[in-house]
Specification:
The complex is a heterotrimer. Chain A is mainly α. Chain A is 83% helix and 0% strand. In chain A, helix 1 packs across helix 5, helix 3 packs antiparallel against helix 5 and helix 6 runs parallel beside helix 8. Chain B has one domain. Chain B is elongated, with a radius of gyration of 22 Å. The chains are: A mainly alpha, B mainly alpha, C alpha/beta.
Chain lengths: 224, 244, 224
Amino acid sequence: MWRDAVLVATKDLRVEARSRVATNQVLPFSLLVLVLFAFALEPDRGVLRTAAAGLFWVAVLLATVLAVSRSAALEAGDGGRDALRLSGLDPAGVFLGKAGAVAVQLVALELVLGLGVVVLYDIELTGVGTLAVTAVVATLGLAAAGTLYGAVAAGLRVRETLLPLLLLPVVAPVLLAATRASEAALGTGVAGIDVGQWLGLLATFAVVYLGVGVVAFGPLLEDS
Amino acid sequence: MTDTKGNAVTLALGIAALLSLAATVVLGLSLPTTVEQDDYSRLIAIHPGLAWASYVAFGVTAVASVLWLWPRTRSRTWDLVAGASAEAGVVFTALTLLTGSIWGRPTWGTWWVWDARLTLSALMLALYLGYLALRRVPADEDTRARRSAVAALLAVLVVPVNHFAVEWWRTLHQGRSLSQLDPGRDLDGIFIGAMFLGFLAMTLTYAWFVLTRLRTLRLEAELEDVALDVALAERRAEAVEALT
Amino acid sequence: MDHVVRLRAAVCLLDRFPALAGVDLEVDAGEVVLVRGPNGAGKTTLLRALAGLVPVVAGEATVLGVDLRRRPRGVRRRVGLLGHGTGLYDDLTVLDNARFWARAAGRAASDADAALDRLGVNGRLLSVPVGRLSAGQRRRVALAAVAARRPALWLLDEPHAGLDAAGRDLLDGLVREAAAGGATVILASHELERARTLAGRTVLVAGGQAVPDPGARRETAGVA
């Protein structure tokens, strides 16, 4: 399973390196979202600074939908799913590989977005350690749930509109938890946030969805 | 072939549901008004019951999905039950939100309170709607059943996560909460009684709804089976033609 | 003697439509069988069912000793299907594609290199992204991916289509080699003249059923 996961992850990342969809489309889109938030929320009233953590994570969530949609689209072409089913690859490995590739892309995106938030919203970077851990754990959960729903919606003609509708309510707790933890690190949230509690929630989410994905991806792949 | 008229069980259930609903309404309206909440405290008769029924519907959808996914118990009925239960669930969840909103308004002055329960219900509504949208997408029966079942289980998994997340989130803020409107110990037993009657009425209504809807869905599926037999015969005829 | 393929009254549904309405078929090791018939007759479904991709819902179906009704996935690793879609990743180069699919099937990268070479895909062509190739070139790459797996059962769906004369000769050579090596080849084709020189016998598929070709030299009357 792990061998297959690495094989698939490197393949997906190689495709990204060649096609540069994440860097040329998803990243600019996310940065644009950050800018649009500023238009909507009036930069001078300090609202942006207070809301920065939440806005960052909303932008990440939207980027996740795009990244996952793209990941699922790789095999959506003519014969793609057949080839995957026939390939001899362990479906659990395929799931982990694809989720892993999405996670890597998201983390890279978050680094740039984080920089964007610091610059655009005038944030003082504190608690970087907490921010980093939060980002990694939250991203694992997002990538796992996203890849799973990508499989649920795969092959259906309305995949592009269905995927966000299915995915976003499910990752709402990740948004909540990641924002709270980030706020605690940055000092922009309410007092008394227990970061450990929120990180625990993120970790639980990630573990649960990785686990379900490993089990459910195979059967989902089977429907033509 | 499923009976189109409905059987005795469903009928009895329907009558029981109707009666208990009527009783709830009567009892609810006859509840005394409270100092703090005026007439709105009467909503205790139906709001918790609606919320309860929406959770039941969710749970049934999840259990039916598991039963479908498990090869040994797999049967079309479970897939249909999951779908019917979700449809009922949407209605009950929407009503939960509506009554919650009405209940909170006079006390807080707003139409919406970001409290743990209402927020969780709102998320559940979104999950339900996504699930139903998935069921509507045209696909092979097996494919659709499998994907819906997986989606239902994924949704169920996230409910406890959501519950804790929202719970912890709202306690951070000590803000408004519907639970503050719940009757304390010092209120009359009649309020509690009305609430439990409401639970009963909603559960019966839910059960009746699901059984009735299940019958319709079964009939639809059987119609498709007949169409399949016709298609098989036509296909064979085509072969005979081509080979002679 | 154990047949490589044994179907009895096999029924396959495609979204409630009986694509295969009761097929009887027996194929032995080392045989090359041509499957022909009008469009929509069920040839593609037959090949996909033999690969374990389409579930057989009634009748008996055994391929390479595996009961397809109970374990459809059991046969996939040992089968090589060349379908209508190629399952290749447009953004990856020819070499990356072939190596990925070979490794996925548990073969070495060198197997992929050799197969590509065998099919006349070499030199500059190896580093071109698949999306930029012509349809015929893509077919050759897809064929190489199948060949690199060294399957025990080759299922070729209209393999000659899109190939130029040189490509067709290479394909024929490949088929003859495979059969000589003990593998079994079933190909569906409209290229009757060419395919008949390859095949030991012909099966006619129409209306979801299969019969031995009534006459190798004459067209069956009434076939569309």
